[in-house]
Write a structure and sequence with these properties.
The structure is a single chain. The protein has 305 residues and is of the alpha/beta class. 34% of the residues lie in helices and 23% in strands. Strands 2-3-1-4-5-6 form a 6-stranded mixed beta sheet, with helices on both faces. Strands 7-8-9 form a 3-stranded mixed beta sheet. Helix 6 runs antiparallel to helix 8 (259-276).
């Protein structure tokens, strides 16, 4: 009696890994999309333009493919401040390095600021058009002529209508993007989510609460600096400064009887404890540094690339 032949083993599926830039004008949902793709918050979101100021890397490994996402500041169309010039340099630097670009727009909309971003995208990279906020489009039939107009603007590699808040849409996007990743080894461990430090994420979370709780009162030229970070067993002691340009801005943040600053601190501490899975003691100060957003030296000292 002959032994049955063993089944041929499946060939090893080669690993894929690539850098993917997420670009678009401010407030089209880039950071929300990045957080959905990574499966955890790594980039802050708010209704205020220019919330994202740093190149933030989010990582997600799905089967044999590792997706390394780079969130970028929205392109700034006013180049007068040093901060704006720095943000745009960051975007250009990202685009030179990546394998694939996700150009995020709001489904059914395309304005002058979107056109300016599109004009700056490299011709030698595949660009996927992400029509985000699909849930806000009431008549899907209206998307067909809009899409035809978009296809006339550039030969997009793919067109993906989605809502970054829907898990099924995000899962579908991974399948669409995978073939565009080069066959090569992974850059990060399989369970990595971001290349940013806890200290950086802490400063971003405080800045997000700052913008969300001050609404449109506070100009975007405010930043957060971590002054002290001490680990005491399961407890983290964090001291941070909110840096603003004017005394009036300081008053806005502190609020009547210090109530607003207390709320910024309380909400930041709760989110930090959730993120770090441990107790956090957070101390916040507000400091006035006139003209920091126009000073290359100040920008470098506050961690801007």
């Amino acid at each position: 009696m002959t032994e049955p032949k063993p089944e041929p083993s499946a060939p090893d599926v080669p690993q894929r890994c690539g850098l993917i830039a997420i670009v678009g004008r401010p407030n089209v949902g880039k950071s929300t999309l990045l957080n959905a793709l990574v499966g955890q918050k790594v980039s802050i979101t708010s209704d205020k333009a220019q919330t994202t100021r740093h190149r933030i890397t989010g990582v997600r490994t799905v089967d044999e493919a590792q997706f390394v996402f780079v969130d970028t500041p929205g392109f700034q169309t006013k180049h007068n401040a040093a901060l704006n010039r720095t943000l745009n340099r960051t975007v250009h630097g990202v685009l030179a390095d990546v394998d694939l670009v996700l150009f995020v727009v709001e489904a059914g909309r395309f304005g002058l600021d979107d056109a300016k971003v599109l004009a700056l995208l490299p011709e030698d990279k595949p660009v996927v058009l992400i029509a985000n906020k699909l849930d806000a489009v009431h008549r899907r039939a209206e998307l067909a002529p809009w899409l035809k107009g978009m296809q006339e603007r550039r030969n997009f590699a793919e067109f993906v209508p989605l809502s970054a808040k829907k898990e099924a849409d995000v899962t579908r996007l991974f399948k669409i993007l995978k073939p565009y990743l080069p066959e090569q080894g992974w850059f990060y461990d399989e369970d990595a989510l971001t290349d940013r430090s806890e200290k950086f994420l802490a400063s971003e979370i405080i800045r997000e609460k700052l913008f969300r709780l001050t609404g449109d009162e506070l100009p975007y030229t405010s930043t957060v600096v971590i002054d002290k970070w001490e680990d005491e067993g399961e407890l983290r002691r964090i001291s941070a400064s909110i840096v603003v340009e004017r005394d009036a801005h300081k008053g806005m943040i502190i609020g009547q009887g210090g109530e607003r600053l207390k709320r910024i601190g309380s909400e930041s501490r709760q989110e930090l404890e959730h993120l770090m899975d441990g107790r956090v003691f957070l101390e916040l100060w507000v400091k006035v540094r006139s003209g920091w957003a126009d000073s290359e030296e100040h920008l470098r000292s506050y961690g801007y690339e």
